[in-house]
């Protein structure tokens, strides 16, 4: 490995039946967590969530997306964004993408840095995975979900893989590759886990 590359392990995980999902404890009501679907496609809001969550964990693949590309993606049938709010403030999100033949990918999932470590992530992942399993109920003519999958990597948060496994996801593929070192775009200086 050179100074310009980093070794990255990527795990692909799946559930193949709704019964695979292991629920998470809901945060205490006093924590004020509420999860709602962002039903109006909004490139601005989705890009905000993407950069606010992924800024310190090397989410860079969508940074070059144009407004029109964001809109086209968000307007696709079977793409849904579910946002966790704590007392009305966005804390994190899970993005679902129907891929045909009953497959739904959790394309993005995570929390803003200040909301990590407060037991919101497990709840949001369980809730969002349940929405992946019942996604076809919200989209006319869509094939019922038969498989939900996700990938995470060693650049993601240190608890990402364990969180997926606790929710009942099973690893079906592991890849180890050297990737170019990419500067992380954030977080905004001073924005860190509280």
Give the topology string: H per helix, E per strand.
Answer: EEHHEEEHEHE
Main β sheet profile: 7 strands, mixed
Distance between the termini: 34 Å
Radius of gyration: 16 Å
Shape, please? Answer: globular
What structural class do you assign from the helix and strand content? alpha+beta
Number of distinct beta strands = 7
Helix run count: 4
Q: Give me the oligomer status.
A: single chain
Percent of residues in helices: 10-25%
Low-confidence stretches: none
How much of the residues is beta strand, in percent? 25-35%
Q: What's the pLDDT, averaged over the residues?
A: 91
Strand order within the widest beta sheet = 2-3-4-5-6-1-7
Describe the structure.
This protein is an alpha+beta fold. It contains four helices and seven strands. The protein has helices spanning about 45-55, 65-75, 120-135, 160-165, and strands spanning about 5-15, 35, 80-85, 90-100, 105-110, 145-155, 170-180. Strands 2-3-4-5-6-1-7 form a seven-stranded mixed β-sheet, sandwiched between helices. The chain is globular. The relative contact order is 0.27.
């Amino acid at each position: 490995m050179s100074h310009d590359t980093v070794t990255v392990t990527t795990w692909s995980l799946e559930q193949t039946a709704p019964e695979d999902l292991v629920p998470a404890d809901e945060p205490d009501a006093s924590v004020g967590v509420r999860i709602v679907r962002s039903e109006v496609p909004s490139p601005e809001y989705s890009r905000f969530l993407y950069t606010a969550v992924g800024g310190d964990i090397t989410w860079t693949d969508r940074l070059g997306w144009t407004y029109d590309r964001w809109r086209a993606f968000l307007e696709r049938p079977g793409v849904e964004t579910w946002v966790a709010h704590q007392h009305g403030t966005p804390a994190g999100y899970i993005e679902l993408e129907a891929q045909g033949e009953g497959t739904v990918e959790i394309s993005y999932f995570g929390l803003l840095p200040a909301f990590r470590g407060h037991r919101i992530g497990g709840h949001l992942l369980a809730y969002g995975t349940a929405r992946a399993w019942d996604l076809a109920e919200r989209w006319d003519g869509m094939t019922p979900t038969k498989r939900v999958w996700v990938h995470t990597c060693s650049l993601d948060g240190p608890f990402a893989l364990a969180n997926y496994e606790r929710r009942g996801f099973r690893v079906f593929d592991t890849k180890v590759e050297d990737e170019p070192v990419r500067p992380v775009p954030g977080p905004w200086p001073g924005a860190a886990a509280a």
